[in-house]
Design goal:
With about 375 residues, the protein is an alpha/beta fold. It is about 35% helix and about 20% strand. It has helices spanning about 15-20, 30-40, 55-60, 155-165, 190-200, 220-230, 245-250, 260-275, 290-300, 325-340, 360-370; strands at about 5, 65, 70-75, 80-85, 110-120, 125, 130-135, 150, 175-180, 210-215, 235-240, 275-285, 305-310, 345. Strands 3-4-5-6-9-10-11-12-13-14 form a ten-stranded mixed β-sheet. Strands 1-2 form a two-stranded parallel sheet. The protein has a two-stranded antiparallel sheet with strand order 7-8. β5 (about 110-120) and β6 (about 125) form a beta hairpin. α1 (about 15-20) packs across α2 and α6 (about 220-230) packs parallel to α8. The chain is elongated and about 70 Å long. The model is unreliable at about 90-105, about 360 and about 365-378 (pLDDT under 50).
C-alpha cells in the first residue's frame, strides 16, 4: 500500500501514532520519533538507533523532515541570524496552493519566506513567518510588495523554529514571535496548530507566555483567538497610527475596520484571557512620529490594558519612508510616559543584514531580476 509523504513537524502524538499503526509499528514508536526530532534535534532517520533498520528505512522513504532549502544565511554584527528558505513545491497539508511563477527555479520568491533568530543576554527569540508574502500590503513593509503567494502549513511554521535552533551558537529557542512575513490571523488554523506544538511538552516546550502573535487587526479573528486558544500567549496589535485617517494611508486593510473596533476586540481579549495587549508602533520619520501623534496614541492606550513597543523603521529600498530622528523617538516616548503609558523603544537588531521583515527576499528578488535582465546597467 502506498502512503502519502507526511511532514514530521505537522504531526501530533496522536496523528503520528496513527501513522505508525498504518504500518504495523508499535504505538510507542511515535513517542520515540518525536523525542529524536524535538528533544535531540535529530532529523536523520538513520541515526534513530532505537528503531529497527526496516523502520528507519521506511521513515526515510515516507516522511518529510525538512520541507525546504536554505537559500541564504546571514549573520549580523550583533549576533542576529537570518534565513531565507525556499519551500519545495511538494503539496503540504493545510497550505493554500499557489501557482509557481518560476523563471529561475533556484530563486523563486513565490515560494520563499524568512525567519530570524534574535539573541539577547537571556533570550533566543525566533521571529517567524506564517505566510508566503503578505495580503495586507502595508505601505512601508517589504513583506507585501509582491502580495500573497500562499499560506504556510503548521509543519512549515514549526520547521522555521527548529531550523533556527540548529544554527551555530543558538541552542534552545526561548521565545517565538509571529512577526515575520504574513498576517498570522488570516492563516488561523495552521498558526493555532503550530502554537500548540511549539508550547507542547512533547514538542519544542516553549512557554506559551513567551509566544507572541502579532496581527494588523482583524477584530473577529482576535475574538476567535480569545475563545479557541487555551494557552496564555501574548497578543500584539500592529497599530502604527493613532487615528483612522493616517492608519488607512499606511495600511490598506484598515479600510475594513476602525481603531475603535480594534480597541473593542482588545478589550474582549483582556476580559477573556486576562492578558495585557502589546501595541506595536513603527515610527516613520515625519509621518507618524510627531508630538500630536504621541498624544493621540497615549489617549488610545489608556482605554485598554496595554503597553507600547516603539520600533524605529528600517529603510526598504524603493519605498519612500525614512528612519525617524533619534531625538523625535525619545520625545515621542517621553510624551507617552508623561501620560502614564508604559512605552519601550525596541532595540534595532540586525540592521546590517536587513533583518526587517521581507527585506532579504526583496533584495534577493531584485538581484535575480537585475541579473536576468538584458537591459541592466551598473
Amino acid at each position: 500500500m502506498k502512503h502519502p509523504r507526511a511532514h514530521i513537524f505537522q504531526h501530533t502524538p496522536d496523528s503520528l501514532r496513527e501513522w505508525c499503526a498504518e504500518r504495523g509499528w508499535p504505538a510507542f514508536r511515535a513517542r520515540q520519533i518525536l523525542e529524536w526530532v524535538y528533544a535531540k534535534g535529530e532529523i536523520n532517520p538513520g541515526a534513530m538507533t532505537n528503531l529497527s533498520s526496516r523502520e528507519r528505512e521506511e521513515l526515510a522513504r515516507s516522511m518529510v523532515f525538512l520541507s525546504g532549502d536554505t537559500l541564504a544565511h546571514q549573520r549580523a554584527s550583533d549576533g542576529t541570524q537570518k534565513l531565507l528558505i525556499q519551500w519545495s513545491d511538494e503539496p503540504s497539508p493545510e497550505a493554500t496552493p499557489h501557482p509557481l511563477k518560476v523563471l529561475h527555479p533556484e530563486h523563486d520568491p513565490a515560494r520563499q519566506t524568512e525567519c530570524v533568530m534574535i539573541p539577547s543576554e537571556s533570550r533566543r527569540t525566533a521571529c517567524i513567518s506564517s505566510q508566503v508574502g503578505c495580503p495586507v500590503g502595508c505601505r512601508f513593509c517589504a513583506s507585501g510588495l509582491g502580495g500573497l503567494d500562499g499560506n504556510l502549513s503548521a509543519g512549515r511554521i514549526i520547521e522555521q523554529v527548529w531550523r533556527l535552533s540548529r544554527l551555530p551558537e543558538v541552542g534552545r529557542i526561548t521565545n517565538v514571535v509571529f512577526m515575520g512575513m504574513g498576517e498570522p490571523l488570516s492563516n488561523f488554523g495552521p498558526v493555532m496548530h503550530a502554537v500548540r506544538t511549539l508550547a507542547a511538552d512533547w514538542g519544542l516546550g516553549i512557554s506559551a507566555r513567551k509566544i507572541t502573535i502579532s496581527t494588523v487587526g482583524l477584530p473577529k479573528a482576535i475574538e476567535r483567538l480569545a475563545v479557541e486558544l487555551d494557552l496564555p500567549v501574548t497578543l500584539a496589535l500592529s497599530l502604527h497610527a493613532p487615528n483612522d485617517e493616517l492608519r488607512r494611508r499606511l495600511i490598506p486593510w484598515a479600510e475594513y475596520t476602525t481603531v475603535a473596533d480594534l480597541l473593542d476586540a482588545c478589550q474582549q481579549w483582556f476580559r477573556k484571557t486576562g492578558r495585557e495587549i502589546t501595541l506595536e508602533y513603527i515610527l516613520l520619520g515625519g509621518v507618524n512620529d510627531q508630538p500630536e501623534h504621541a498624544r493621540q496614541l497615549a489617549k488610545i492606550a489608556r482605554t485598554i490594558r496595554a503597553n507600547i513597543n516603539l520600533i524605529r523603521y528600517n529603510e526598504v529600498d524603493g519605498l519612500p519612508f525614512r528612519r525617524p530622528e533619534t531625538g523625535d523617538v525619545h520625545a515621542f516616548q517621553e510624551i507617552l510616559r508623561e501620560n502614564a503609558v508604559n512605552a519601550h523603544i525596541r532595540a534595532s537588531r540586525g540592521r546590517d543584514i536587513s533583518a526587517a521583515c521581507g527585506q532579504l527576499r526583496h533584495e534577493k528578488s531584485n538581484t535575480a531580476t537585475e541579473a536576468a535582465s538584458p537591459h541592466t546597467t551598473t
